[in-house]
Amino acid sequence: MGIEVVDIVDGTVGPAAFYGRCSTEDRQDPRTSRGWQVGAARRFIEPFGAVVVEEFFDVGQSRSVPWERRPAASRLLAALKDPDRRWTAVVVGEGTRCWFGNQFSLAAPRLAAYGVDLWVPELGGRFDARNPSHTMLMSVLGGMSASERQHVQARVRAAMDAQVINEGRHQGGRAPYGYVVVDGGPHPNPSRAALGQRLRVLALDKPAARVVRRIFAECLDGMGDRGIAAGLNRDGVSCPSARRPEQNRHRRGDGWQGGTVRAILNNPRYTGYAVFGRWTKYEKLLDPDDVAAGCVVRFRRSEPGKVVRSLRRAHPAIIDVEDFTLVQLRRRAKAAGGLAALSGSERSGRTTTRVYVLRGRLRCAVCGRKMQAGTRPCEVFYRCLVRTLRPDSPVRAWHPVTVYIRESLIRDVIDRWLVALFAPDHVDETVSALVASQTTATSSSTVEDASRSLVEAETGLRRFRNAIASGVDPVAMVDGINRMQAQRAAAQAALSSAAAQPRLSPSQVRRLVTRLGDVEETLNGGNDVAVEALYARLGLAVRYDAFQCAVELSIHPGCPSAAGSVRRPRLALTALCLTPDSS
Questions:
Q1: CB 361 within 8 A of CB 540
Q2: Phi-psi bin for 320: left (phi > 0), alpha (psi -120 to 50), beta?
Q3: In what order do the strands lie in the sheet with 16-22?
Q4: pTM for this one?
Q5: What are the structural domains of the chain?
Q6: What is the pLDDT of residues 45-92, one digit of tens each?
Q7: Which of 143, 84, 148 is nearest to 114 (CA)?
Q8: How far, in Å, CA of 147 to CA of 100, rounded?
Q9: What SS3 state is found at 112?
Q10: Is the pLDDT higher at 213 or at 7?
Q11: Are the C-beta atoms of 272 and 563 separated by less than 8 Å?
């Protein structure tokens, strides 16, 4: 009738080799897993008069990894070529643990080519390639194995998401810089608690937490990632891999990098909430031209909708949610500006052997940029060159070719003003002026400029939307829309920062001034390092007007107003002083 009858397969088995696998994802003891798989294989073939003479067992290998890339399986395949091997058959304890997808169709022909039989418990005997039922069943088992793996992954991820959202549980891994993992009591799962497992929670690492607050504070002050990293290296602050080398064996611990600072600024766990799923694993073909080579696991950022956050605080916060949000808004506004924003940004501070006390604090009043420090024999100077401006900058029309000023001239003016400001007989007036400056902060020109910029951005975006609705190609407006969105985000960040500024009482301001110490002694001591530190604590800012030969001085002393806050109180004093002709 056209139906071919398959010959009856001989049921005898010679000496056999066992193969099994245990994945770390199973959360099962490898020793126990190997024991029951070997036991199942022996119970399966012993009635046929066979015995297991050699064992091959892979630990920590996912079933999706091809046999050629599994250590024990690759040794088994290599032993096929050995004519003196002690076994003539291969037996497994469970087929779905050993093969995934189409792996069986790739491994079985190799075994058959060397005369090795394959015994699978799901088949009830030896695999026969001539039997279509065997081939179909093994194909189904491969699909079931892939489906089982995907279902396990989905269930585990759903359970971990629920634990983070409802309980704020730490899901393991390295603690973020600024935290340490400590004992959190018995495990909430009774079965695991009975085995002695303990819950792990995050606690503050106070010295590192202060560094994290410093990083966020300097970011809010306008410093870039590399500038912050350079300052930390200059001050001898240990980087994360140097502070915790046991958690960072893959790092060299050779100092702070811009990427390290960027990772800290983008980590929402510093707000005290548990966050899970920011990175996700995905499988990528090892060789697109050879699908049988399998996939390798890679990591990438998850989509925002797949990141979960706890409903309440799960560990001590280092940064306020408002400060973290403000940092993200400013960084996104800068990134949305594209190359134009990057080309107009300022240089970060570079590590130098000489101390420049006004580095990063002296700006050109014509263009608003930081002036570059330099040295000549026996003197330090600062300059601003017109050739370093962007070619399309409108300031080039009236900017001098070179704005030049000696440091000694400006320091004399600054020191006289600060000595008079913090003199014992004048300190009460200074404290009163600093306290009063908080009441006028919200009506400053910065807020007015931010409000005006926000209106301009909203108007520009509305015009773009109207143009697109009238039929203009949206692609031609991408750059303009990005520019307006960046301007709007920056203006909103400035307004939210001004509205949420902390306030200090007169007693707090007086303590702040007292901690400065003897200002006159520090300025006249001849120690440039101490003077630079004093300028930093005062938040000194200097603008030099080359046309009027004058400097505008301002101080913004402050410190975090509360635990977790990195915003400085809005204290400010300004003065306009004339300087001798710098030429």
A1: yes
A2: beta
A3: 52-59, 16-22, 89-92, 117-120, 125-126
A4: 0.65
A5: 16-151 (3.40.50.1390), 179-320 (no CATH), 352-438+502-578 (no CATH)
A6: 988 888 999 999 999 888 888 999 999 999 999 999 998 999 999 999
A7: 84
A8: 9
A9: helix
A10: 213
A11: no
